[in-house]
Design a protein that fits this description.
Largest sheet of chain A: 8 strands, mixed
CATH class of one domain in chain A: Alpha Beta
CATH architecture of one domain in chain A: 3-Layer(aba) Sandwich
Shape of chain B: globular
Number of helices of chain A: 14
Strand content of chain A: 15-25%
CATH topology of one domain in chain A: Aminopeptidase
Oligomer: heterodimer
Helix content of chain B: 40-55%
Distance between the termini of chain A: 21 Å
Structural class of chain B: mainly alpha
Number of helices of chain B: 3
Radius of gyration of chain B: 12 Å
Largest sheet of chain B: none
Number of domains of chain B: 1
Largest interface: A-B, 30 and 24 residues
Strand content of chain B: under 5%
Shape of chain A: globular
Chain lengths: ~475, ~80
């Protein structure tokens, strides 16, 4: 539930596929004596015509990269810090010292102004009535189930707490499951003692097979667990792989966000981008094309057609896994929110005119601070073919470069997908806790989902990539 | 043991388990200032449901308690 966007741990860790010289990784130097380090530092190593950087320089570059990337990622954190707004100041909105009794009830469309104001005040950004219509009137899942659109805590005729409830369709073992994902959890501080009642209402609702929380922070994750949810068993969902595409603008955005003086910003960005660029060249941190008769084509979300249905049906019949419904109409609904300032495109992989896989990439542009990000929002490949996945990875990289993104990110997906992406040596950052929790109403189903192989969790799940009609706000 | 004691005992036990500093539980103390967070209250309510077989927080459209006194009263009314 997002319970708000997850807080990110910005410690950079080495990826699984890179053996040495990663952020925070002392690499081979750690095993050397001081004398050997000095000796090695004076050696120039030529390979393939390219002059690689000697060990101390590598360390310096790594250190610089580490600081830069960590600082930049703080700025990538979606409106998280905004929640850390001065609570004392915000509490003036509440009559201290005595908050009036609050009542819990189902949310309705007429609550929109109060909820939007509450969410904005607590740093969850702007919302729109069009977005509410999208989620709770145009949602394809509503053809299968009628669930509350959420719950509110109301006191003195105004909204003091809110939790959204978005119905979604899933497939598992040949069956369609009704899932609900909690979204936009917020409560005024005076009412947080009873804010659990919103979460309690979420877990008490009827006609739901699966309860999902996909953007939890540490405390909301604990709350989900208190109501019987378990953390996602799929490995590495909390680790984001990323590639820096444009070192100089990336570094400039970082420096700008650090509020450095203009001169220092330019100078630092110049040297930092040099370091990152050198690093990228040395480590060859980019996907390379290795395609056998595969054709990559990019299209708009609105062009998703029947061939996607065939691929989806094939995936449903593959090994039994819990899959968010990806039928064409749902894909279009998911990625076409009204008023969304972000763009999503589909990168398709064909062989002999047959669709073998696709990747949806979302570009977050013109964010405060100037940082631009492309996120792999969905990916589906017939039989999880590694060659197709790598071809899509290459396509995603090329797309992100083409649209001017500074960084490309991949979060979630099973090991086979991640390992294919990891071949291009991404950087990695880690969340401090799992953002993804689940609870199945049916105990045998819950037990079946305890295995990692039952999952294909990605940003497509839950409310992770539901488009808000606003750019991500950086703190 | 009175209902009040049962409730306050749960406050203390959960606070200790969750490592939260609990302030003296006087009647007029706002729940939000007790030191317990929403997770703690979720646990308290779950345990009280086990002990008393009532969950007054599951009822919509009734006024939820904001102080310790109201919280105890809330359970007293629900247990009747």
């Amino acid at each position: 539930m997002p319970l708000t966007a997850p807080e990110t741990d910005f410690r950079i860790q080495p990826t699984e596929t890179t053996a040495h010289f990663h952020f925070g990784d002392p690499g081979p130097l750690a095993a050397l004596t001081e004398a050997e380090k000095v000796q090695k530092s004076h050696a120039w190593d030529r390979k393939g015509g390219a002059c690689s950087v000697t060990a101390p320089w590598r360390e310096m570059i790594a250190s610089l990269e580490q600081r830069l990337v960590a600082a930049a990622l703080r700025k990538l954190r979606p409106s998280r810090e905004a929640q850390g707004v001065d609570e004392a100041q915000l509490d003036h909105h509440v009559d201290r010292p005595h908050a009036k009794p609050a009542k819990l009830r189902e949310a309705r469309f007429s609550d929109f102004p109060g909820v939007a104001e509450l969410k904005q005040r607590w740093g969850l950004g702007e919302d729109s009535l069009e977005n509410w219509n999208h989620l709770w009137r145009d949602n394809p899942a509503l053809c299968h189930v009628q669930t509350p659109m959420g719950w509110v805590l109301e006191a003195e005729g105004r909204i003091v707490g809110y939790l959204g409830n978005i119905p979604l369709l899933y497939r598992y073992g040949g069956k369609t499951l009704i899932a609900a994902t909690a979204s936009g959890f917020v409560a005024e501080s005076k009412y947080r003692a009873i804010s659990f009642s919103l979460v309690s209402a979420f877990y008490r609702q009827k006609s739901v097979d699966l309860y999902l929380t996909t953007t939890a922070n540490e405390s909301t994750g604990k709350l989900a667990q208190a109501f019987g949810s378990d953390p996602l068993p799929q490995a590495d969902f909390d680790k984001v792989l990323f590639w820096i595409l444009r070192p100089h603008p990336y570094c400039r955005a970082v420096m700008k966000n650090l509020n450095m003086p203009r001169v220092l910003t330019d100078l630092s960005a110049f040297f930092a981008s040099l370091a990152l660029h050198a690093r990228r060249v040395v480590r060859r941190r980019r996907p390379r094309v290795a395609v056998n008769g595969l054709e990559i084509k990019e299209m708009a979300i609105s062009e998703i057609g029947d061939e996607f249905h065939d691929l989806w049906m094939h995936k449903v019949r593959e090994t039994p896994r819990l899959l968010a419904d990806r039928s064409p109409s749902i894909l279009q609904w998911h990625f076409q929110a009204p008023g969304d300032t972000r763009t999503a495109r589909v990168i398709c992989c064909y062989k002999s005119a047959e669709l073998l896989g696709y990747l949806v990439i979302r570009d977050d542009r013109d964010q405060a601070g100037g940082l631009r990000r492309s996120l792999v929002s969905d990916l589906l490949v017939r039989d999880d073919d590694s060659e197709v996945i790598q071809a899509l990875c290459t396509g995603a990289y090329a797309h992100a470069k083409c649209v001017g993104s500074h960084v490309l990110e991949l979060q979630g997906f099973p090991e086979k997908v991640r390992s294919a992406f990891s071949k291009s040596k991404p950087f990695m950052r880690k969340y401090p806790s799992s953002p993804f929790y689940y609870k199945a109403e049916d105990r045998p189903l819950h037990a079946a989902l305890a295995g990692s192989s039952s999952w294909y969790a990605s940003p497509f799940d839950g409310d992770t990539t539901f488009h808000a009609p606003r750019p991500i706000a950086f703190s | 043991m009175s209902l009040r004691s049962v409730v306050l005992t749960q406050f203390a036990e959960v606070a200790q388990e969750q490592g939260r500093p609990l302030v003296p539980l006087v009647d007029d103390l706002p729940l939000a200032d007790s030191g317990l967070d929403s997770l703690c209250f979720a646990i308290v309510v779950a345990r009280l449901e086990d002990l008393l077989d009532v969950d007054p927080f599951s009822v919509e459209n009734i006024s939820f308690p904001m102080t310790v006194r109201e919280f105890v009263k809330f359970y007293e009314n629900a247990s009747k």
